Amino acid sequence: MTFQNTREFARELDSKDTLNHYQQEFIFPKVNDKRVIYFTGNSLGLQPKRTKAYIDEVMNDWAELAVEGHFYAEKPWWDYQERFAEPLSKIVGALPSEVTVMNTLTVNLHLLMVSFYQPTKTRYKIICEEKAFPSDQYMFQSQVNFHGYKPEDAIVEIKRREGEHNIRLEDVLAKIEEVGDELALVLIGGVNYYTGQVFDIKTITAAGQKAGAKVGWDLAHAAGNIKLELHDWNVDFAAWCSYKYMNSGPGNASGCFVHEKHHNSNLPRFAGWWGHNKERRFKMEPTFDPVHGADGWQISNLPVLSLAPYLASVEMFAEVGMDALIAKRDHITSYLEFILHEIDKEVESTFEIITPSNPEERASQLSVFLHGEGRALFDYLMKNGVITDWREPNVIRLAPVPLYCSYEDMYDFGQILKKGILAKKD
After folding, report:
1. What are phi and psi of 343, to 5 degrees?
2. Which of 45, 94, 156, 193 could form a disulfide with 89 if both were Cys (CB 3.0 to 4.6 A apart)?
3. Within 10 Å of residue 177's Cβ, how many Cβ atoms?
4. Residue in 115, 64, 149, 49 with CA at minimum distance from that of residue 261
5. What pLDDT does residue 425 have?
6. Which residues are annotated as a binding site?
7. Residue 164: its pLDDT value, please?
8. Model confidence at 175: pLDDT above 80
């Protein structure tokens, strides 16, 4: 398709968009009494309107039933998490028994590393990507310290080549082969938070396992955003947050994946009573008997008030389906890319998109290096109704989330961006 930088063309694309009506399902902040253009769903998704009803249901059950809500609520609390198994499994490409919800993201990654990072004297190294999200970096450092190793020796970062913004797949595979028999774990972000690069999960997983390592993935920026086939790709484990592309609310519950090949293993884990045999849980037995499947990694009574908005979200995803989301994601991201290039021609500044141009290596994010511009342009965008994200030294991240961003939003953003740059030059 040949794109055009006109409002009429953008409106025509919206009229043909089968997901366009989902914009009405979300609550948008306002700036200057006008609905914002929201580009930060990669940090915190917008609130779906249906969320309140799910929370109110739990609050009403709590008021009317108190403790009996565990068993007699409309959605009984004691097995509330089981409602996630089917819809979440479709979002991440898993068997229902391979997914669960609990805790928050870094907590879950730590807990999963109890099972999947079992260093020995000779096999103890972890491969991760350079400039991983800081929480992952801190996690790696604390884990290797806990096991008695030095981070500078045990943590191996895959570097970008000089002058390049993204990591080449061939360099990931070469590093795995180089570390070889010393490699205990590969744990990488499925989508790099800074550049928006999508990694080849299938190929990297196979390479890491061939080297004798376990392979896990931080899917914070991937779940609900890219096509995942965790079961078929033979991923050992994964975890993700729910508040970015899945719109469940700030700091909300995390999802976990544990491949079925590990369900009958004797992997170590930190145990708690919510992971105990469901049918015998209230017998208060002294010996831990884990639930079969990913639910057996749960520890504590679940925070049902947090799970309610997450359930609202995954049921919306079940309505839409990942294939439809990804089709619009690719198209609207390409249109945003086109708009940026068109505005670039009309101003003296230069926008360098550091996200891969190959659609197979990107998703709902374009990270843009603003050569010749600074923080003042970001501030202008924010004051004029474009909610975006600033990352040092000079990058804005734009996430045109397909559920609630429109093509006309992309056009309007381009016009506001242009005015912001030209205003500075007047």
Report:
1. -65, -35
2. 94
3. 12
4. 115
5. 65
6. 105-106, 133-136, 218, 221, 243, 273, 301
7. 95
8. yes
Binding residues for pyridoxal 5'-phosphate: 105-106, 133-136, 218, 221, 243, 273, 301
| pTM score | 0.96
Residues 123, 212: contact at Cβ < 8 Å?
A: yes
**pLDDT given at position 426:** 58
Given a cut of 70, whether residue 375 has pLDDT beyond it is yes
> Six-digit token pair at 61?
């059950």
Contact 419, 349 (CB under 8 A): no
Nearest of 310, 308, 278 to residue 296 by alpha carbon: 278
Structure tokens belonging to residue 423: 């205003």
What are the backbone dihedrals phi and psi of residue 95, each rounded to the nearest 5 degrees, phi first?
-80, 150
**Amino acid 279: pLDDT:** 86
Residue with tokens 């609630």: 404
Secondary structure, 3-state, the chain: CCCCCCHHHHHHHHHHCCCHHHHHHEECCEECCEECEECECCCCCCEECCHHHHHHHHHHHHHHHHHHHHHHCCCCHHHHHHHHHHHHHHHHCCCHHHEEEECCHHHHHHHHHHHHCCCCCCCCEEEEECCCCHHHHHHHHHHHHHCCCCHHHHEEEECCCCCCCCCCHHHHHHHHHHHHHHEEEEEEECECCCCCCECCHHHHHHHHHHCCCEEEEECCCCCCCCCCCCCCCCCCEEEEECCCCCCCCCCCCEEEEECHHHCCCCCCCCCCHHHECHHHHHHCCCCCCECCCHHHHCCCCCCHHHHHHHHHHHHHHHHHCHHHHHHHHHHHHHHHHHHHHHHHHHCCCEEEECCCCCHHHCCCCEEEEEECCCHHHHHHHHHCCEECEEECCCEEEEECCCCCCCHHHHHHHHHHHHHHHHHHHC
Bond prior to 393 in cis (omega within 30° of 0): yes
Q: Say if CB 246 and CB 45 are below 8 A apart.
A: yes
| pLDDT at residue 348 tops 80 | no
Q: Give yes or no for a contact between 236 and 229, defined as CB atoms under 8 angstroms apart.
A: no
> Quick one: tokens of 7?
């409002």
Which own/partner pairs from 79-82 qualify as long-range (CB within 8 Å, at least 24 positions apart)? 79/278, 80/302, 80/304, 80/307, 80/311, 81/295, 81/298, 81/302, 81/307, 82/295
352 three-state secondary structure? strand
**386-408: pLDDT as tens digits:** 999 998 888 999 999 999 999 99
> What residue spans of 3-104 are helical by DSSP H?
7-16, 51-65, 69-72, 85-92
H-state helical runs in 117-168: 134-146, 151-154
